[in-house]
Amino acid sequence: MAEQREIWVFSEKPALLAELIAGAKTLGGRRVAAWVVGARSSAAQALTQGADRAAWLGDTGGERLVEDYVPTLAQQVQAGAPAVLLIGSTRRGRAVAGRLAARLDNTVLTDVLEFQSEGGDLLIRHMIFGGGAVRVEKALAQPVIATVGSGVFAPLPPAAAAQGEMVEVPFVEPEWRARLIERKPRPPAAVNLAAARKVICAGRGLARQEDLAMINELARALGAEVACTRPLAEGLNWLPRERYIGISGATIKPDLYFGVGVSGQAQHIIGMNRSKVVVALNKDSSAPIFQQADYGVVGDLYAILPALVQAIKARP
Amino acid sequence: MNIIVCVKFTPDAGDIQVNSDGSISLERAEWGIGSFDLQAVEAGARLAEATGGKVMALSAGPRQINHSKLKKDLLSRGPDELYLVVDDALQDAGTAATARVLAGAIGKLGPFDLVLCGEGSADLYFQQVGLQLGEMLGLPTLNAIRKIETAADGLRVERDLDDEIEVLAVPMPAVLAVTTDVHEPRLPTMKEILKAGKKPVTEWTLADLGLSGGLAKHSAVVSIRAPHQVQRKNIRIEGSPEEAAQALVGYLNKEGLI
Amino acid sequence: MRRMSVPEKLAVNKYELDEGHPHIEVHEEVCRAQCPNLACLFVCPANVYSEQNGRIVADWAGCLECGTCKVACPTDALYWVFPRGGFGVIYREG
Amino acid sequence: MSEETFDVIIVGAGIAGCTAAYLLAQQGLQVVLIERGPYPGSKNLSGGVLYGRVLHEIIPNFWEEAPVERIITNQVISFLAAEGAFNIDFKNEAFCKPPYNAFTVLRAKFDRWLAEKAEAAGAMLVPGIKVDAVLRDSAGQVTGVAAGGEEMRARVVIAADGATSFLAQEAGLRERIPTAHVATGVKQVIALPRETIEERFHLTGNEGAAYTVVGYATRGVPGGGFLYTNRESLSVGLVMRLDDLVRTQSKPAEILEDFLAHPTIAPLVKGGRLLEYGAHLVPEGGLAMMPRLYTGGMLLVGDAAGLGVNNGFAIRGMDLAIGSAIAAAGAVAEAKERGDFSAQSLSGYQRRLDQSFVMADMRTYARAPHFMHNPRLFHAYPALLVDFMTRMYDQQGLPKQHLTPTLRQTLQDHHISLFDLLKDFLEGARAL
Lengths: 316, 258, 94, 432
Description:
The structure holds four protein chains of four kinds. Chain A is of the alpha/beta class. Chain A has helices spanning 14-25, 40-48, 70-80, 91-103, 212-222, 230-235, 266-272, 301-313; strands spanning 7-10, 32-37, 53-58, 84-88, 114-118, 121-128, 133-139, 144-148, 166-168, 179-185, 198-202, 225-228, 256-260, 277-282, 295-298. Chain A has eight helices and 15 strands. In chain A, α1 (14-25) links the parallel β1 (7-10) and β2. In chain A, α3 packs across α4. The termini of chain A are far apart. Chain C has helices spanning 6-12, 28-34, 40-43, 68-72, and strands at 14-16, 24-26, 49-52, 55-58, 78-80, 88-90. The model of chain C has no long low-confidence stretch (mean pLDDT 91). Chain C is of the alpha+beta class. Chain D has helices spanning 15-26, 53-58, 107-120, 166-170, 194-200, 242-248, 252-261, 266-269, 318-338, 343-355, 357-364, 368-372, 375-378, 380-393, 403-413, 418-431; strands at 5-11, 31-35, 49-51, 68-80, 85-91, 102-105, 124-127, 133-136, 142-147, 150-159, 182-191, 207-215, 223-229, 233-241, 273-283, 294-295, 298-300, 309-310, 315-316. In chain D, strands 3, 4, 5, 6, 11, 12, 13, 14 and 15 form a nine-stranded mixed β-sheet that branches. In chain D, strands 1, 2, 7, 8, 9, 10, 16 and 17 form an eight-stranded mixed β-sheet that branches. In chain D, strands 18-19 form a two-stranded antiparallel ribbon. In chain D, a hairpin with a 7-residue loop joins β12 (207-215) and β13 (223-229). The longest helix of chain D has 21 residues, at 318-338. The radius of gyration of chain D is 23 Å and the shape is globular. Chain D starts with a strand and ends with a helix. The mean pLDDT of chain D is 94. Classes of the chains: A alpha/beta, B alpha/beta, C alpha+beta, D alpha+beta. At the A-B interface, α4, β6, β7, β10 and β14 of A face α3, α4, β9, β10 and β11 of B.
């Protein structure tokens, strides 16, 4: 049988590259090649994270942008004819994937959440309509080019020594270059709600801004991030806009969502209904949030929250 | 500067109806301009106003997009002309097919200095068409653009990336996919809506673009279903504040959350 | 049909929310001084008005724009106008 | 372009606004139709019965192209008591022949079609724009409208902006609306499969049924309930006098839930799925409520003019709105020919309205609002009817009484004197 075609992975973010390598390993047991830009050491590192071989395209510290390597990668893909090419779904990754696909008269299956091989075909699953629907597609093109976000695959535990060889790849001069003038640090978002494992969400049941102190205390006791519903961020400005969960705010998928005084309007539910465990505390028993809750407490938050913090701290 | 702004008309995701078998239906959905494309239209209008030039709006899609409400709405937000590629073969068109059709249409438009696209379409949000289109046109192509300024040697742009901001000089003509931070979209005014009714609209079919031979299909849609709803336990905790607190701590412990 | 609460019913409707541009404002001091019946707290079909912790609060996002409160309010405590063009409730049946 | 003065600016693309735009555009006038919702109909809501003959006069056989739901052939008047109901069930196949008497409609679809007709006739539709105020010259003549900081001039402005019409008040044509002049309507549209509706209401094809409910439906608050069959849904709701809602501190949403749970209504909505919940004000003041209908450069049509009839067995608004639009279009076209849009010239609108069925019906039912406000109508009589029928059929193995003494006894038990009964009967006869 012809030498089995490989699965290639590419990302400028080492952590995401490691996840893609682990993911590639699950696709039909093929050899996995990691294509690396940036520090040379990242290529060596890829070999300790499960890659069977690694190729270093070049550095991106100086004048070269990540996207300048598209022609180089395209040449390699045409020569190496991998079966699948997984690209990390960062903004740069999406740019590389799109331009690469266009050069190869191919397309990109974006933000894939799950791969499934069925007979000889590869099926992919991703969300459309802002999470309102799940679409399953069968890949027809060769190679299959797909972007995958962080959190879809878990990286393999790093091996002690690198197996497999590392090569350097000749740079192909791109047809055009954008000239880098300056790199500015991006102010780190105060909170990354999307990545938070536990979230306490404050709602309109709170009377005064000072009452957020109770929410913060509960959050500290549980090791959770503090978020809020739209009116608190938009109307009353008790919290910054990036802390509000909802259709035009953050969408979260934590292990715990704890809604305090949240009524549960549809626009909010869409942003939190994929949480693993949902707890709701509200004085109105008919509040819609209770239908979405695993554990519902009907009562006055001013009495229950202090008792809850006490009970958590008093635990052995 | 003459600017082409690519826009996708999409059914409103808020109008999705979930059928009893989990499949979804959109035939009663209201169609409108993709909410993420409005910023691209605004950016194009402002650049044209600042540099003296015209804005050509371009869209491709099935027959639903050929509706006076949609055309007037788009033309009331800054563009001077509208070009539509209307063909039912574009129903559920993939990103590559859409980019190919837009590239074909741009070939028939006059000279341009810049092509702008939104961050992603409001229905699919694959964030791909601008990038694939730019490469097909063989032009400088960048996404995540949050700021555009004209400069002596072309454009000065800022790219809002995950970990940093890149400030770049980009030669023209170029293709840029803008983020929603680029400009707050304007609300159409009474007079702009009235003027929109009189602006030129040109309609093409795939045949007019020499693409009637059919578009390459790189993937086939197998199913589209509503996400499966997590079944909630709906356990109600009763009792005094202390009893409720104790009970809740017990459950959180059982769930491994404390 | 099972009984539904007002928030559940409003959740079925379609709204184009005009973020940051409330079309309803309650001047509470006028309510407390002049209003004989606080009619808005019960006549509104969408329960926009509620008394929370001693303050009259208007959750304008769910407003059905019928104008009942505007007619029922005996004082001029209520600033109530239609939302900006294209915003607010969008009837698909009507 | 923007300095242009149009012939007519119409504010509000509801039934009256779209009809006026259609007629005036057909006569070659330059018409701008401004709608604050994203599309015509997106802000409009009615119980949903359109008496179609007047629309047939100006758009012949409109039902062949318009999105109508069902043709009403079955009218039911239901007197509701706590546990029971006394229904008058009337059906006439004659209503199922063109030009059809009445249709059920859903405004989000119907108004949109009507606006497209006006656009096709040449009217310029401007959606998504809220008009803030009318412009007036030093002599007080209305010269256009202001919206979002922009001004647009026209020879005449037709205010079709609904029951709360801010423009009518702002132009000084009426004062604040008293709570006694309006009713709050709350409505749900409930999806049911077409076959279920036809089975449950004994309908064939696109026949429809209309229930008008009095009594317990509104828990004694003067007003009424309605249940109309659409093609694949039911329009169910209540209309309650606002002054009584305030007086009794009742919550409309809760009364509606009780109405839906009533033993004779629950089976009709069983298995239904809520599609939409809406509310709207209904003009119920009758003739006494009507503001001055015109001033220099401005006319009021439809609900904005306070046109509405509620005579207990039917709630009519849409046909009156169309009638007012026909009168308004005639007056404006005439004023255009004369080149004179002064109040005097526009008084032709009032004249045409007076000569039409619109003012005839408003005068005929002038006493209806007062009569309909009689609490006995909404509490005592429905309970009396149901109680009397219960006694009539109740076989307890005891000797039965004749009907007359049974009736007299029931009247006594319900503390209704013959005098009250007679007085109310006479007032009803004169009012309805």
